[in-house]
Fold this protein.
Amino acid sequence: MEKVTLRVFRGDIHGGHMVSYEVPVQPSMVVLDAIHYIQQHIDPTLACRWNCKAAKCGSCSAEIDGKPRLMCKTRVDQFPSGVITVGPMRTFPLIKDLVTDVSWNYRVAAKIPPLQPKPEVAGKPFRMQQADVDRIQEFRKCIECFLCQDVCHILREHNRQDAFFGPRQMVRIAALDMHPMDNLNRREQLVGEAGVGMCNITKCCTEVCPEHIHITDNAIIPLKERVADDYFDPVTRILRRIGVIQHEQKQPMSSVPQSTTQIMSKSPRPGK
Ligand code: SF4
Ligand code: SF4
Ligand code: FES
């Protein structure tokens, strides 16, 4: 393949259209290289966000041939037709061309309290089982590309940003809730404003994750199980009532002081 045709979305919140560009193909070329070629040789006003070109910063998220992917991790030669469509993530408000406003994700993240160490371990080195380390290590691989948020139908088709934090934030909460040193009861937030019950385990988020995090199997489903045990399992409730099993003695969410980040989270979400 000597040349490829890139059909790139050009526009802003007032409207836009697809524009075709012919780009010469180089060995091992990725879509981000082709976008850079357009910027350098054809139209310097084409806007895209990128940083590392190594699939690690999460900046270059886009929809390539309709699928959420990283531009720097998508090789041009995997499209034998020679035509590649590149558009912005549709779930987030458009700024310009391929650049979207993903700030809503950061405001949601600010609503999730950080690790609250148990009093007996606060200020000391944590000593943890390797199995516990391995379990939460997977979640720490997240590069905040928000491709999972982009593909999730609850946010994308149903616009339920008011009721669901989205898969990326489920991964964040799982990393904290499964941390053996965390002392905060996160279940109330999970069933409440985080909306874990909204997820119907379609696994679309897992399919697009460039870090191959098992978002549904390892984060969302275990979180749902924990919530179900606490709130909906009648046997567990009876056993708790008669004292056969004890409630986890964790700090309630309401005990966390309102931080600067929580104040930030109250700023309004820009319109789509
Ligand atoms: S599994 Fe849940 S969070 Fe993931 S895309 Fe489907 S509905 Fe959204
Ligand atoms: S969980 Fe995966 S898809 Fe979602 S933001 Fe993190 S790295 Fe991206
Ligand atoms: S440029 Fe950093 S992930 Fe693509």
Summary: The first helix runs from residue 31 to 42. DSSP finds eleven helices and seven strands in the chain.
